[in-house]
Amino acid sequence: MNEHHIKEDILNILRVLSSTEGSSQRELSHSLGVSLGKTNYLLKSLVTRGLVEIKNFTIKNQKIRKVKYMLTGKGLEHKLQLTYYFLKRKEKEYLKLKEELEKIPAS
Fold it and tell me: What is the pTM assigned to this prediction?
């Protein structure tokens, strides 16, 4: 998988989590339009890195029934870094396209 796509998926998860009080994997998967398995994989990575934390939402019969994923302060900082990265990348693409357009002779 392309590194840019992974970074974009991570940024999208961090965006959703920063705009909600916490989301389940299923809610995130639906919001992002990606599979539940991919959402699970990305969330595990983000939890391991300390960017997202897991909060118990409902406990029944001594078992956790639902959990919510919440953005940490470190996760918010990472979201800002990724946003900056994507803005710089889009700016480079724009400048390259502008340069190519200027090379096209006017009719």
Answer: 0.74
Nearest to 52, CA basis, from 29, 74, 21: 74
Q: Are the beta carbons of 31 and 24 closer than 8 angstroms? A: no
Domain formed by 3-80, architecture: Orthogonal Bundle (1.10)
Please name the residues in contact with 23: beta carbons below 8 A apart, sequence gap of 6 or more: 16, 17, 31, 68, 69
Residue 18 CA to residue 98 CA, distance in Å, equals 34
Strands 52-60 and 63-71, by their bridges, are antiparallel
| Burial readout 3-22 (b: 16 or more C-beta within 10 A, e: otherwise) | eeeeeebbbbbbbbbeeeeb
Q: How far apart are CA 22 and CA 28, in angstroms?
A: 9
Amino acid at 73: G
pLDDT in tens, 69-107: 888 999 999 999 999 999 999 999 999 999 999 888 876
